[in-house]
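Q: Got a minute? One more chain.
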Amino acid sequence: MTVSVVVMFAIMLTTSATIGRHPTDINSAADAAQAPRPVAGPLEGMVFALGFIGTGLLGVPVLASAACIGMSGLTGKSWGFDRSIRKAPLFYGLLAVSLTLGPVLAAVLNDAIAMLVLSATITDISAAPFLAVVLLVASDRRIMKDRTNGALATHTVGWLTAVVMAARGVIAIAAQFIGP
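A: Always. Here it is, folded:
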C-alpha cells in the first residue's frame, strides 16, 4: 500500500509541476514522454520510462489478480495465491490468460495510444453488464441474506447508472466506426 501511495503522489507531483505549469497537448506517447522536461531536463525520457514501467509493474498484477478473484468468487470457485493450481484452476487459468493477452495485444498493436483507446472502449462496453450482475447479486436474498441493497440503491440509482453506462458503451462503439 505504501508503494502505491508513493507512486500516486509522484504522479500528481510530476503532473502538476510539468503539465500543470506548462500546459501542453498530449496526443501521443512521444508527447507524454516529453512532458517531464521542465522537471527532469534532458532525462525526461528516462523519467517517463521508469514511471511508466514502474506503474505497470505495480498495477498490472493487482488489476489482473483482482479481476480473476472476482470472476472466480462469482462462480463459486476457489481462488487466491495461497491455493495451489489444482485447488484453484479457474483463478490461475484466468490469470494466465489475462497476463498473456496484454503483451500479445501490445505486440500486435504497437501503439500505446491505440492500446489506451482499446482499453477504454472495452471498459465502456463491459462496465454495464458487470454492473448489472453486481446489481442482481446485491438484490438476491438467497445470496445476500439480510444484507441486500435497498430499492433506491438497486432499482433507481443502480439501474439508471447501468443504463447510462450501456449508452456510453454504444457511443464508444459508434465512435470507433464513425469517429468522435
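A: The first helix runs from residue 2 to 18.
Q: Perfect, thanks.
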